[in-house]
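For reproducibility, we list the full input for the adenosine monophosphate complex.
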Amino acid sequence: MDLKDFIRNVPDFPIKGIQFKDVTTLLKEGEAFATAVDYMYEPFRQEEIHKVAAVEARGFILGAALAYKLNLGFIPIRKPGKLPAETLSEEYELEYGKNAIEVHTDAVQKGERILMVDDLLATGGTAAAACRLIERLGGDVVGVSFLIELTELNGRALLQQYRVHSLIQYPV
Ligand code: AMP
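The corresponding predicted structure, in tokenized form, follows.
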């Protein structure tokens, strides 16, 4: 099964010049969704991991499925103002704009090994900020797992200190 067949490219969304990789066309097909999660699970199945963290919103879908498969707890990393209890916040540059993300301060225990998940690696700013949040709480990031990587944007440069894995690559 070629998972690329299930990803829809939407030109000029949400702004002109962006080739948006739409994963809803993969998620709605049971076998493709399960295959994607199984392949994302494989490289990390032998790792000692304590929790899975993922970034709102598409990251949650894959991250929660991976957490279930690994029999681990799940940490949501969310847009500002969404998490109800005490939070830490990190700013980052997006491929199209600027943003911030937050995590609950009690989400991670010191020394816990965390697998970070998102749907897509573009410039790497989102994932790097998410990893900084985990580290500020005393956690160790054991890996960063993406369904899709836009290789020409060189997001790996911001994630050099981590083990980065992506399942599907496009230039942009
Ligand atoms: P970045 O911080 O630049 O690596 O951007 C990654 C985040 O933005 C991910 O959470 C993606 O969901 C989203 N994103 C950025 N570029 C795209 C794109 N071309 N297609 C779909 N999602 C994207």
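The chain is about 25% helix and 35% strand. Residues 18-21, 55, 58, 94-95, 118-127, 155 surround adenosine monophosphate (CB under 6 Å). Both points were considered when choosing residues for closer inspection.
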